[in-house]
């Protein structure tokens, strides 16, 4: 068959959805060296249409090798890996491209982005710097990205502030940099400076409703006549606002009306916000969650642990529990101790789950003891790099409870603090916070109740396996009787009592979770029993949890 | 066949400081993706290659090509009355481009086998993709390459243009808002009539955008408010607005008509293949992996003999 007939047949097959046949015909064209670039592109398209992403990757790799100066192929290949959340492989694509094109600023930028996703924070910073050195467009954006890494992952807030100020030096009205600066000051407890930046943003862009919502969040409103309420309501009434704004205005109004004691009205706004938000978040699958919990319970058994060879004798501290259960408060209390540094929400185990140990947890059995040792060592090295000189760093992430099996496999001496709060208060608190796409159960009280029960089920399993290594700290008892609770907690961690732990709200550690204002206040008893204000609105929870 | 073109709409379009055709109203992402495509194409060209850029508009493709390969010698032609050097001052690369304004693809005077490459971004298909390709391919040297980004009937650009056309048609219909505005200013109709038309327009069940209806309504308000103090200027503004809206409508109608189906692309392929060109075409996506936003067709090839 002539190349022209082959091409025609291949395109016809592709158009008719006969992708396997089209692929074979395109491959024949490729063998005849007809338009290799176009044919390889066609092979990529056909592979994607037939969901053969591995083959699409192979053809893109060929294009990247044949055309090492064409960034589109590098980007497409990286995007393919990114889609599978294989960030390291995505970063490697740019690494190879940069070897051939060292002055390509956008490639350095994308390399940095993927390195960050892969958890290589310092390398990501270096690559962003290379993008800047190569005159990348919009340097303010790059500087802001660097600041986010410094602040969120390396906990080098001074450097973060420095980069954000540089960004504003490049572009004085660059709102993301102002917003991040405000957030950093907010985390630091400097409400005044945070408010200044928020107000400056609103002056530049009165339609920046996200910032208006933050202003609402950052102040306690006691009067229904407070201007912020009218401002929020005016935005919500505007017919032209987009869905995201409508959601954030509903949550903000829920918050300020809750402040004012208008609970039923507040609940209506929260319910509206959640209803709208549900359409934007991935649907929570109760079946999947049950399976995930069951997989953990079935895999991590006492017998399995008995067979396990020793991996590491380190004694890291993990804090876990339900989202909004007070784990941030626990971290702040511990960070007030001279021997403890708050590590914030580490994502090491989440990355392991998505990138390395897949399917989790079954794939663990495929790892030799030496590989597990390497994984444990890397975790400790990441912590040491992020917090040089720290004696003991906490890893506080509510959903660490999903990884306790792996954590205890890597670190048999790990100490686990399980933060627990009155169930109805906890569930309501989840519902009242717009948690984002990763917390898919948070927009529906029924889903929250379901998630909670699964969490309890899994925690019961861990407690049966690691009885002595898990300490359950009750948020509700902590706020009533902090000193005795903290003494017991420190005893569990084999740390001496320090009165500073009662003054946790005064320390300079930054708090990087959704509940920053609650933690900044001295013990917040108001959060305990809050559900009673909403008794008439939470039948679903009351039915789920009885008394 | 040389299809008739109304170039006025495009001359007016390019007389604003637009660098990009069609994608100007879309996202920056479209722009970036196309820029990369041209930069990649440019990387493969030898230094000092001669390039013919068809339907160049304000020279976006030339600008992208030269941004990575500044030794290229680019001739850029357009049927519209363009003067990008005057307008697009911030794109220094364009100073080295030979622009040929008011030049029909079918009336080019280059010698055969002049160019190492021929390019077009949302351009050549307005002249009839197959016919225009047949006319320009002889200008390619043997082993010379071409790359065309061509409108696709199902592309995001064309789909969104269809809604805009409906909006423009409503505004410009006979005895519609814009026509009545001019009549009101000329004393040939009552202001109340315009008010009624405006209210009726807003009640209609059609998509109204801020960029089109919103801007026209703001314009009418300003024109009416300024009429008492400066009637002459108000009338001039109203006529200018009417002209601009009608031009944009014409432009969008041409744009949607330029969308190619896979059948028309196959016809094109057969025609250029018969001329000794190894050619290919494939859909061009903003994100080739997700394949969720269609930019157009990518037509590429090389002259074999």
How much helicity do the residues of chain A have? 55-70%
CATH architect. name of the largest domain in chain B: 3-Layer(aba) Sandwich
**Overall pLDDT of chain A:** 90
Mean pLDDT of chain B: 86
Q: Structural class of the helix and strand makeup of chain B?
A: alpha/beta
| CATH level-four homologous superfamily name of the domain at 314-544 in chain A | P-loop containing nucleotide triphosphate hydrolases
Helical region count of chain B?
Answer: 11
The fraction of residues assigned to DSSP E strands of chain A is under 5%
The description of the largest β-sheet of chain B is:
7 strands, mixed
User: How many strand segments of chain B?
Assistant: 7
Please report which band the strand proportion of chain B falls in: under 5%, 5-15%, 15-25%, 25-35%, 35-45% or over 45%.
Answer: 15-25%
Overall CATH class of the domain at 314-544 in chain A: Alpha Beta
What is the count of structural domains of chain B? 2
Q: What is the third-level CATH name, the topology of the domain at 314-544 in chain A?
A: Rossmann fold
Rg of chain B is 21 Å
Run of helices and strands of chain B = HHEHEHEEHEHHHHHHEE
Terminal residue distance of chain A: 78 Å
Task: Give an account of the 3D structure.
- The complex is a heterodimer of chains A (547) and B (305).
- Chain A is mainly alpha-helical and 547 residues long.
- Chain A has helices spanning 3-15, 19-31, 36-49, 53-66, 71-83, 87-100, 105-117, 121-133, 139-153, 157-170, 175-188, 191-204, 209-218, 227-237, 243-259, 263-278, 286-299, 302-307, 327-335, 348-356, 369-386, 404-410, 423-431, 445-465, 475-480, 482-492, 516-520, 539-545, and strands at 317-321, 340-342, 392-396, 415-420, 470-474.
- Chain A has a domain at 314-544: P-loop containing nucleotide triphosphate hydrolases (Rossmann fold).
- In chain A, strands 2-3-1-4-5 form a five-stranded parallel β-sheet, with helices on both faces.
- In chain A, helix 5 packs antiparallel against helix 6 (87-100).
- Chain A starts with a helix and ends with a helix.
- Chain B is an alpha/beta fold and 305 residues long.
- Helices cover 47% and strands 16% of the residues of chain B.
- Chain B contains eleven helices and seven strands.
- Chain B has a seven-stranded mixed β-sheet, with helices on one face.
- In chain B, helix 5 (129-136) packs parallel to helix 11 (262-274) and helix 7 packs antiparallel against helix 8.
- The two termini of chain B are 25 Å apart.
- Residues 1-10 and 12-26 of chain B have low confidence and may be disordered.
- Classes of the chains: A mainly alpha (547), B alpha/beta (305).
- Chain A binds chain B through residues 3-4, 7-8, 11, 15, 34-35, 37-39, 41-42, 44-45, 48-49, 56, 67, 69-72, 75-76, 79-80, 83, 240, and chain B through 36-37, 39-40, 43-44, 210, 262, 266, 269-270, 273, 278-280, 282-283, 287-291, 298, 300-302.
């Amino acid at each position: 068959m002539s190349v022209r007939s082959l091409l025609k047949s291949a395109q016809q097959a592709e158009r008719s959805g006969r992708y396997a046949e089209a692929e074979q015909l395109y491959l024949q064209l490729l063998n005849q060296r007809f338009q290799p670039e176009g044919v390889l592109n066609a092979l990529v398209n056909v592979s994607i249409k037939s969901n053969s992403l591995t083959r699409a990757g192979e053809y893109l790799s060929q294009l990247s090798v044949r055309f090492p100066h064409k960034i589109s192929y590098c980007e497409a290949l990286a995007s393919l890996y990114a889609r599978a959340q294989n960030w390291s492989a995505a970063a490697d694509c740019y690494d190879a491209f940069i070897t051939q094109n060292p002055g390509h600023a956008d490639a350095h930028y994308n390399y940095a982005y993927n390195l960050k996703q892969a958890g290589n924070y310092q390398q990501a910073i270096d690559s962003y710097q290379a993008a800047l050195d190569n005159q990348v467009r919009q340097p303010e954006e790059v500087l802001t990205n660097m600041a986010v890494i410094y602040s969120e992952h390396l906990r080098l807030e001074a450097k973060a502030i420095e980069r954000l100020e540089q960004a504003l030096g490049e572009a004085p009205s660059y709102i993301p940099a102002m917003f991040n600066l405000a957030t950093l000051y907010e985390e630091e407890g400097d409400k005044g400076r945070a408010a200044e930046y928020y107000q400056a943003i609103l002056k530049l862009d009165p339609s920046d409703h996200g910032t208006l919502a933050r202003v609402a969040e950052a102040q306690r409103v006691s009067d229904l006549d407070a201007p912020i309420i009218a401002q929020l309501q005016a935005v919500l009434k505007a017919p032209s606002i987009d869905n995201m704004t409508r959601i954030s205005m509903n949550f903000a109004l829920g918050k300020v009306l809750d402040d004012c004691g208008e609970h039923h009205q507040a609940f209506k706004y929260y319910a509206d916000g959640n209803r709208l938000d549900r359409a934007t978040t991935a649907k929570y699958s109760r079946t999947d969650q049950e399976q995930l919990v069951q997989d953990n319970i079935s895999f991590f058994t006492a017998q399995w642990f008995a067979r396990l060879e020793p991996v590491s004798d380190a004694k890291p501290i993990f804090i876990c529990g339900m989202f909004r259960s007070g784990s941030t408060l626990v971290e702040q209390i511990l960070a007030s101790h001279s021997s403890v540094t708050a590590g914030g929400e580490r994502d090491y185990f989440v990355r392991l789950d998505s990138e390395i140990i897949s399917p989790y947890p079954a794939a663990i059995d495929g790892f030799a003891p030496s590989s597990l040792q390497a994984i444990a060592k890397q975790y400790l090295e990441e912590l040491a790099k992020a917090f040089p000189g720290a004696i003991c760093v906490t890893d506080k992430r509510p959903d660490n409870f999903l990884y306790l099996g792996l954590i205890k496999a890597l670190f048999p001496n790990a100490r686990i603090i399980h933060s627990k709060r009155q169930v109805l208060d906890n569930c309501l608190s989840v519902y009242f916070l717009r948690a984002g796409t990763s917390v898919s159960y948070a927009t529906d009280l029924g889903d929250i109740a379901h998630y909670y029960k699964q969490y309890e089920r899994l925690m019961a399993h861990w407690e049966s396996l690691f009885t002595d290594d898990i300490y359950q700290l009750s948020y509700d008892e902590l706020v009533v009787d902090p000193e005795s609770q903290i003494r017991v907690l420190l005893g569990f961690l084999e740390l001496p009592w320090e009165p500073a732990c009662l003054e946790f709200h005064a320390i300079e550690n930054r708090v990087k979770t959704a509940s920053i204002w609650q933690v900044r206040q001295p013990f917040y008893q108001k959060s305990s029993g809050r559900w009673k204000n909403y008794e008439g609105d939470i039948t679903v929870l009351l039915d789920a949890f009885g008394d | 066949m040389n299809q008739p073109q109304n170039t006025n709409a495009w001359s007016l379009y390019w007389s604003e400081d637009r660098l990009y055709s069609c994608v100007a109203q879309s996202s920056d992402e479209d722009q970036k993706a196309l820029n990369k495509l041209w930069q990649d194409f440019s990387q493969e060209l030898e230094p000092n290659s001669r390039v013919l850029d068809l339907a160049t508009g304000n020279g976006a493709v030339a600008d992208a090509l030269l941004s990575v390969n500044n030794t290229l010698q680019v001739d850029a032609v357009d049927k519209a009355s363009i003067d990008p050097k005057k307008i697009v001052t911030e794109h220094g690369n364009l100073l080295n481009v030979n622009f040929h304004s008011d030049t029909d693809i079918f009336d080019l005077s280059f010698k055969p086998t002049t160019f190492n490459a021929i390019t077009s971004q949302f351009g050549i298909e307005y002249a009839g993709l197959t016919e225009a390709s047949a006319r320009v391919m002889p200008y390619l040297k043997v082993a010379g390459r071409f790359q065309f980004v061509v409108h696709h009937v199902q592309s995001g650009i064309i789909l969104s243009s269809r809604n805009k056309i409906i909006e423009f048609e409503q505004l410009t219909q006979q005895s519609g808002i814009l026509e009545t505005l001019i009549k009101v200013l000329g004393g040939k109709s009552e202001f109340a009539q315009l008010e009624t038309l405006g209210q009726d327009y807003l009640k209609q069940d059609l998509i109204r955008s801020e960029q089109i209806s919103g801007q026209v309504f703001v314009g009418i308000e300003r024109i009416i408010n300024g009429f008492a103090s400066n009637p002459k200027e108000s009338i001039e503004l109203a006529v200018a607005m009417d002209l601009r809206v009608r031009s944009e409508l014409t432009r969008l109608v041409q744009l949607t008509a330029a969308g190619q189906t896979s059948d028309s692309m196959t016809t094109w392929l057969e025609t250029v293949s018969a001329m000794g060109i190894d050619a290919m075409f494939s859909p061009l996506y903003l994100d080739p992996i997700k394949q969720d936003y269609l930019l157009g067709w990518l037509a590429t090839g090389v002259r074999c003999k």
